[in-house]
Amino acid sequence: MDAPHPVGEGRQNAVTYRSKGHQMAGNPFAEQERVAAARLYPYIFSRAFRHLTLLRKEMTAAASATFPDRKDLVLIDFGCGSAPYRPLLEQYTANYLRADFPNNAFADVHISPDGTVPLPDSYADVVLSTQVLEHVDCPQRYLQECRRLLKPSGLLVLSAPGYWVYHPYPQDYWRWTGSGLKKLVKESGFELVRFKGLMGTGPSAIQLLQDSLWPKCPRLLRRMLTLVCQCAIMALEKLLSQKESADDACVYVLVARKT
Question: Domains of the chain by range and CATH?
Answer without folding.
Answer: 11-258 (3.40.50.150)
